[in-house]
Amino acid sequence: MNNKMNNKMMENRKEMVQVITNEREIEQNYLINVAQVPGLIHLDMNDFYGFANKHKLVMEVIVDAPAPVSEQTKTAVSEVKKHGIETIAAIILSVSYNSLLPLTIEELNSVSDFFDCNEIKRGVQENDNILNDRSISLFVFE
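The structure assignment produced for this chain is given below.
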């Protein structure tokens, strides 16, 4: 019975991929959805402006899918490449997880291979308002 219930829950889950290129909207999203939310690994506006003052902010990709963090990150990187961005100077990766299924270190470490840049900041926060068990926001700077 429990397996049937879990399968039914998985069937009802949706995948959401959103790409934002408006700098002001990205900054607002970061403030509201990352900087103002307490996290296990907290990111604040200093993290954002530290990159924004040195690099050009080009996009935010949000992925909320019934998939592991590594698969969501792969999807986000694919979206970045679809927009013609080949050279990434810096990224901020914010990972949200549902409190019913805590995030593991292995999951967080599984994303390291996707990025070819020297400056990476990661944040982790509990968020029961996401559609699935995991969601990521990738902020990209050139």
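Interim note for the steering committee: The chain has five helices and five strands. Strands lie at 16-20, 57-64, 90-97, 119-126, 134-141.
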